[in-house]
Automatic annotation (TrEMBL):
<protein>
    <submittedName>
        <fullName>TetR family transcriptional regulator</fullName>
    </submittedName>
</protein>
<feature type="domain" description="HTH tetR-type">
    <location>
        <begin position="13"/>
        <end position="73"/>
    </location>
</feature>
<keyword id="KW-0238">DNA-binding</keyword>
<dbReference type="InterPro" id="IPR009057">
    <property type="entry name" value="Homeodomain-like_sf"/>
</dbReference>
<dbReference type="Pfam" id="PF00440">
    <property type="entry name" value="TetR_N"/>
</dbReference>
<dbReference type="GO" id="GO:0003677">
    <property type="term" value="F:DNA binding"/>
</dbReference>
<feature type="DNA-binding region" description="H-T-H motif">
    <location>
        <begin position="36"/>
        <end position="55"/>
    </location>
</feature>
<dbReference type="InterPro" id="IPR001647">
    <property type="entry name" value="HTH_TetR"/>
</dbReference>
<dbReference type="InterPro" id="IPR050624">
    <property type="entry name" value="HTH-type_Tx_Regulator"/>
</dbReference>
């Protein structure tokens, strides 16, 4: 009985992986609006019933992929923000995301009112930055710092995924943050 359950679990994992890979391949080739369930099934070499076993439609698939990669970013940041912001933090972030570069770059190109990997990534970056910024009192609006940091990190992430991680970029990003905290903030004494 347990072997049957394990086999079914493996089939589910493989089917979902194949569907996700097919979808990512398709969004690199054609507009999202033109992608059909038939296209996804054909690319994944599965039947429609298999697709509908896991996803309601292509929007559900997109949302689940956005959540999956957003969770990966959130986990990477949670692990690394414990230490502090330094060059290694950003380099490790780029390396961790690089494992999923094709999917992330493809999904970052898509933007809908409710579903956007870029919006989710920025929210996660702001959340983690907010936790870190509680150590400082800023002379300029903290919201501005959060949004500036998120936009800069997004630019660095996309650059690193397209062209490879450059330690100089990580170093520059940290220099910018150090400049902000040194010139526009005071450390909170606890």
């Amino acid at each position: 009985m347990e072997d049957i359950m394990n086999t079914n679990d493996l089939r589910a994992i493989k089917s979902k992986r194949d569907i996700e890979t097919a979808f990512i391949n398709l969004i690199t080739q054609k507009d999202f609006d033109k992608i059909t369930i038939k296209d996804i099934c054909s690319e994944a070499l599965i039947g429609r019933s298999t697709f509908y076993r896991y996803y309601e439609d292509k929007y559900d698939l997109l949302n689940k992929l956005i959540l999956k990669y957003s969770q990966i970013l959130d986990d990477l940041l949670a692990q690394r923000m414990k230490h502090s912001i330094n060059n290694d933090l950003l380099s490790e972030l780029y390396t961790g995301l690089n494992k999923h570069k094709d999917a992330i770059l493809s999904l970052l190109k898509l933007s809908f009112h409710e579903s956007s990997l870029e919006i989710n990534f920025k929210k996660i970056l702001i959340k983690h930055m907010t936790n870190y910024l509680h150590n400082f009192n800023f002379k300029i609006p903290e919201l501005y710092i959060q949004q500036l940091y998120a936009a800069n990190v997004m630019t660095a992430i996309i650059w690193s995924l397209k062209y490879g991680a450059d330690p100089q970029i990580a170093h520059m990003m940290n220099d910018i943050f150090q400049h902000l905290t040194k010139n526009y903030a005071t450390k909170v004494v606890k």
